[in-house]
Amino acid sequence: MQSSIVIYKTKAMLQLKIVKPVVVWTPPDSGDYSKELWAPEIHFIDNKFYIYFTADDFHQIYCLENPSNDPTTGN
């Protein structure tokens, strides 16, 4: 299980070994989506980035939305 959601950003696949991950979201210390973070997916839909992931004991699906042009920045 993961403790945060990270993105590896590079223009060349061969650089994945050397590029540093960017933490784009860290769950709160407690609450529905604070543990068992798993299977994040990123999608670009209608000029927004969406990260879907599962969390909590029942692996419910959650979604993060980012209107930035760069998924490693914004809110």
UniProtKB/TrEMBL annotation:
InterPro entries: Glyco_hydro_43, Glyco_hydro_beta-prop_sf. GO terms for biological process: carbohydrate metabolic process. GO terms for molecular function: hydrolase activity, hydrolyzing O-glycosyl compounds. Gene3D superfamilies: Glycosyl hydrolase domain, family 43. The keyword Hydrolase applies. Keywords: Glycosidase, Hydrolase, Signal. Belongs to the glycosyl hydrolase 43 family. This is Uncharacterized protein. It comes from Panagrolaimus davidi. The lineage of its organism: Eukaryota, Metazoa, Ecdysozoa, Nematoda, Chromadorea.
